[in-house]
Design goal:
This is DUF3460 family protein. With 66 residues, the chain is mainly α. The protein contains three helices and no strands. The protein has a domain of 42 residues.
Length: 66
C-alpha cells in the first residue's frame, strides 16, 4: 500500500461528519425526536380490544352488500 493512500469516504459521509462536528448535540436531539413519535409503550389489552373490534372487509370493496 502506498504511503499516500487514503481510505475513500463518500460525499454524504463527509457531509454528515461535518454536520456532527458543527452541531455535537445533533444525535441527542434526533433521539429525543424519535422518542416523541415512535418510542411508545403500548397497552396490550387495548390493542387486543382494537383487534377484536375490527370489521372484516368485503371480498369486493366497491360492492354494497356481501
Amino acid at each position: 500500500m502506498p504511503f499516500f493512500w487514503k481510505p475513500y469516504t463518500s460525499d454524504v459521509t463527509q457531509m454528515i461528519q461535518e454536520l456532527k462536528a458543527k452541531k455535537p448535540t445533533l444525535e441527542a436531539e434526533q433521539r429525543a425526536g424519535r422518542g416523541l413519535l415512535w418510542d411508545k409503550n403500548l397497552d396490550r389489552r387495548q390493542q387486543a380490544e382494537f383487534q377484536a373490534a375490527k370489521v372484516p372487509q368485503q371480498p369486493y370493496v366497491y360492492q354494497n352488500k356481501a
